[in-house]
Amino acid sequence: MSRPQDPPRSFFPFGNPFRMIAPKGTKLPPQLLAVLSDFEATLEERLKNLIPKSEDEVVSLSWMTSAMQALCESHNDIKSLMTNLELPVTDWDEKWIDVYLDISVKLLDICIAFSSELSRLNQGRLLLQCTLHHFGSFSSDQLFQAYSSLDGWRQHIGSKNPRIENCGSVLDNLAGSSDLPKVKKSAKGKVLMQAIYGVKALTVFVCGVFATAFSGSTKNLMDMDVADVYSWAPTFKGLQNLVNEEIRVRFSSGRFTVLNELEAVDLSVRELYPIIQGVVDTIETESLAKTVEKLGRATENFSQGLDLLTKEVDGFFQVVLSGRDALLSNLRSGATVNDHILRGNKDAQVVN
């Protein structure tokens, strides 16, 4: 992971795609308004639950796990909303279909990138466990083996993941397509598009934080301007400002990473590394034992956090994939859908 030198990403070169004016046109009937209100109230509650209670929660693997859970639940809510609206896919405007499929393919790309980074971190965890295993005794041979494993960890964790490095362009495309199609005649369509907009704002924010934490650079951190006409907007802005500001403060102080559990491991490694680096005969056994114990606790917390987050990222991938597959299946069976939509989206490929 590299230390960032990037300025705050507070603007977009071609205007802010998240600036969305209050919906106009078709007035929502009371029943649909209630459906939308319930959806947005649930979204706001999830945003509130993601507000860290202290700076120590930014950015922890447990917070990232909760954020990914919120994404899974919100995207599942979109699928439930489609059912509740009783809006058959065959009645969808072509632009709505394009928006949904475009979002889904970009999210699959991002999930693949995140999964690859979690796999890389898990490989590094094995090196830490090897290091701890070699500290079963403090013989010269075992200390040499521990030193070798620890050196391997430092080289591995300091390397870059090309998929994460390329994640920024995918996020740019996802954010750049955030202007949703205007809905003039369909009240149900307006509810659907407004709900998708809210979930998309949450998605881009969370994915931006993930990409920032994994890359060690603020270049992927997103500052989105959401219109105050949405009931969840104030909560969203509060969450975004708090998390983004803390991340920037940490990076500006020269920290190796903003991931709390990884930072704890790195601090323990820094303490341990010089102790065993070529000065075996002068090692104080008691001091070494305490430092090894500290590294063991940090490694265990890191391991548990990785396991939980990996499970949630895999789950989110399946949520997005299942929703996309369901829509494509319905499109193939719909007689009123134009053939070019089917051909265009059938050939869409997830970037590996």
Quick description:
The chain crosses the membrane at residues 191-214. This protein has 352 residues and is an all-alpha fold.
Written description of the protein model:
The protein has 352 residues and is mainly α. It has a domain at 30-39 and 58-119 and 160-263 and 310-325. Helix content is 68%, strand content 0%. It has 11 helices and no strands. The model is unreliable at 2-25 and 335-352 (pLDDT under 50).
**SS summary, helix count:** 11
Provide mean pLDDT, rounded: 82
Low-confidence parts, pLDDT < 50 over ≥5 residues? 2-25, 335-352
Helix content: 55-70%
The count of β-strands is: 0
Largest sheet: none
Reading the helices and strands in chain order gives: HHHHHHHHHHH
End-to-end separation = 21 Å
The geometry reads as: elongated
**Strand proportion:** under 5%
Secondary structural class: mainly alpha
- Radius of gyration (CA) equals 23 Å
Topology:
Layout: H1 30-49, H2 61-85, H3 94-134, H4 140-157, H5 162-165, H6 167-176, H7 187-215, H8 233-252, H9 260-276, H10 285-332, H11 339-346
Helix pairs in contact: 1-2, 1-7, 2-7, 2-10, 3-4, 3-6, 3-7, 3-10, 6-7, 9-10
Organism: Medicago truncatula
Subcellular location: Membrane
Keywords: Membrane, Transmembrane, Transmembrane helix
